[in-house]
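MODEL INPUT / OUTPUT PAIR
PAIR INDEX: 1
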Amino acid sequence: MTDKEYDLFIVYSSADGSAAKSLMEQLESRFKIRCCFADRDFLPGIEIAENIAISMEKSDKVLMLMSPEFSSSGWCRHEMHEAVRKYYLEKRRQCVIPVLLEAIPEMPKVLRNFTYIDFKKEADPVEKIHKAFLTNTEEDDQEENAEHQSRPTFRNDWLVNSPRHMYDDDFEDSKERMEFLEEETDMETLQTYFDDACKGQDFDLLQTILENEYSAFNSTNIFNFCAHIPKARFTQEIIDTVFQKLDKELSYADLKKSYIVACSNGYRYAVTKFNEKGCQKLINVALVETLISQSSPCDETENDLLIDILEDTKWTEEDKLAFLNTAITSRKRNIIKRLISLLSRIPFEYFLQMIFLMDEQCCLEVLLKERYPDQKGMQEALSKACVMNMETLAREILKLGITLKPNLLRPGFKDGIIKILVQEYPWSLEELDEMKEFIVGTVCKKCLRLEVQKRLANV
């Protein structure tokens, strides 16, 4: 009847196996309809889910035999959703034929828009199924041939590998898609949609998936949730919902990436939920260094949560120095400032790096606290302070009594810095004279002449 291997794929519960087999035999004998019947046609040695996908792909249409046992069967629900997917993907009328073998408490939501056959009310239900099968089959085949060149071919694993825009093209509207997802049972489908809803910040879709009783999320989904959802949307209610659905089998390693994002972005309540799962055990030096390097730019956003972690009393002086090194490398100003207050001493090489990164007041506080005795090092620090035009810091370094040479001056130094260097260091007249070749600005040359005259007058 069609170019498929089977005309009908029959979905039934094991409790209705006898009725399903009788129906299948009548369809084949009376109407020559080729049926795919699980007990007879599924391939041995293959997982059930794969058998379902392969067999449904080989079948033109799906016959769904509903009963109370059908409603309570996990495999029947899975097959039902696969059939509805087939309907939406192929856009074919009568692709799914529901048959009510016995009354059920409630029609599944995904089938409420389908007209069904009531087996007990029909004089000849098998003939009715045959007529339903024939309806639009010829039209569907014509449409299939016309659209074959333009429509993509869907493989059995389309669900896992396809991007969300494929779904958008195959649903009439977002409402239809939401209804489809409300009772979706396939975990990978729900996780894929959850991932895409987070990345696209599609909050309606996210809410629909969260309300699905079958949804359960892995570490990748939680990572995308933490990484993409704006902080304003990070309500305690939605965080609680997500964590209730988190896969209980995840290890600490699985959660680590998500935990880092939550800590780095300052999602305090989310971190609390992670810690309820024991993630506080992850907090070691390496993880804190990762948090520092990945946190928001510290000159724009104060990360109170990370500050709290840094202030934990368990960290040794060596640990804090490691954190400081990471903060300096990552240019995280507020973290550097906090660590300066937490450390009993700041190594000189760290101070040297800070001159290029920190504000002058912060560098001045470090210098006054440490009073570094290294002559050569302080000469380098003075040079860096002059480059950064830190006048107050330059004055304090000069007070340490370091030895300077005239070639310290550079053409790029600002006038104020040059005045400080010329006027506030005890140069000899010979050194002042040697400075002439290093000073180019008119104002600075005048300052140098006045300083020479002052020294001559003192002599």
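PAIR INDEX: 2
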Amino acid sequence: MKTVLVFIALLVAVQSNKLVPKAKGDVKVQCSETIQVGNASYTFYKCPKDYYGAVEMCTSKDKKNNLLSIHSHEFHVKVIEKLKHYNITSYEIWIGATKGKWSNTYYWTDGSQMDYQYWARGSPSHGFFYSACVLMETKEPGYWHDVDCYKRRPFVCESKPGKSHSR
């Protein structure tokens, strides 16, 4: 009986090892798709994380990398087109906009100015007393929603060579 239990325990351990990546590098290889647009590269991670885990994943390789920030409608449309091209249309993804508790002001995690917004009707809905993070629909037209930061969703990181924002 002991031998059977040990065998089952080993079998479970081996199988769970195959299912769960051990390191961030493994997650990046198994869950990501990177596209190049001009000098910048954008990596879509289909393995969901909460907002804070997504930020950590983006900045783990290089502190200049961040969740995607969008500064024009033209760029917003290009992002949706690229996601559509790669058949990434059945998701809501984290982008780099957030706000803290005791504030109504949203900002980009890369420190750049929040000079463009594309809110869905009824959004933003999180008031002064609540923190919130922003999801973008990947299907057209790509509206934004403010939600609880602990929801697990896919996300997009951006890497722009030589660009760094300070807050």
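PAIR 2 NOTE: The chain has one domain: 31-159.
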